[in-house]
Amino acid sequence: MSKKNRSVYTWQELQEEGRYGPYWYSWLWNILRPVLVGLTAIMLVAGILLTAWGKISEHYIDPPDAASQSWVIFTVPSGSSLTRVANNLEEAGLVRSRSVFKYYADFLGYGQKIQAGTYTLSPSMTIREIAERLTEGDGIPLVRRITLIEGWTVENIADYLVREGVLADREEFLSLCRTGEGFSAYYYVADVLKSKNVSQRRYVLEGYLAPDTYEIYSSSGATDIIKKLLSQTEAVFKDEWHTRADELGMTMDQVLTLASMIEKEAKLNDFARVSAVFHNRLKKGMTLGSDVTVKYAAGISRMSLSSTDLAINSPYNTYRNKGLPLGPVCNPSAKAIEAALYPDEEYTAQQYLYFCSKDPDTGELYFSRTLEEHNAAVSIYAPLWQAYDERMEAQQK
């Protein structure tokens, strides 16, 4: 039988064919070698990382004295910032690094929960243990959040801050907003203070308290809060919006005034359309005829306005006075400001001049080009406004 057809070979024959010999294991080594090299590299990298982490932990994260059995009286004064707390902890020898503690507490949300009070801490405590311990104070958190809603007036904001326990008295807040004194460092407030008839404004700062969610120190007073809101207004009103306002021949105050009317008149979907109506009327030299300006002047909230309401003698009444009212009638959102600067192009081109409420519950509006169309719409929808007012009045009783 030839070797080709045999299934059994002798050891010598196998060696002769080179199937087994001094290097029979080379194929296995070719497979294992990259695996072993990779494992070795991983072990080296892991070793380096563990060594580096150990050094970092030793110098920045570990307790200053893990074996310590001593205790330190540590006080967090009311109104302390997280940075101040971190600095004081390092100075007291309770943490290795003020920066590590600050970023750790801030990242995990402890910064909003740390409370004023007196604590007993040890150098043997970890930063997590210390952060958790500092949330168990006397019930006065270092910081808290407030949320101001788009379209709120200065008075709405004052009521909210008192209701939430942020301020004890609304009058100080209202007085500061009424005069604007102490805030002229903000260029736009300075411009308002220099404007004509500023003394007739209900609140100089109306329109400039940006609606948003804020994190404030629990010890913040009325002045601190107002400055935070004014700074946000400056941040919201972008450079490109200033450029656009210049193109329209409008000041920042005029833009915010128009935006405040848009905010109160419409829902978001109709912002740009309402803006187009107001821009069209301004170009034609018409009165703006905006109900929300009358409501602001008279301090009322009814949908249906009487002839007496519409005749109120006020620089805010856009039925009696041409052009924009004396100032904003609420604090508008960024979307309303954008709409004031960029009215709907189609409605602008088609010369829409009127709108009225179509559904008081949803805020849907009906737009008209002519006075005849508008009057017809009013005759249809006015009963819905009256019914809405009656329902709201019944709910308030």
Low-pLDDT segments: none
Helix content: 40-55%
How big is the Rg?
Answer: 36 Å
Instruction: Tell me the structural class.
Output: mainly alpha
- Spell the H/E element sequence: HHEHHEHEHHHEHHHHHHHHEEH
Cross-sheet strand order for the largest sheet: 1-2
Q: Could you describe the largest sheet, including whether it forms a barrel? A: 2 strands, antiparallel
Q: Please, could you describe this protein's structure?
A:
This protein is 51% helix and 8% strand. A two-stranded antiparallel sheet has the order 1-2. A two-stranded antiparallel sheet has the order 3-4. By secondary structure, the protein is mainly α. The model has no long low-confidence stretch (mean pLDDT 87).
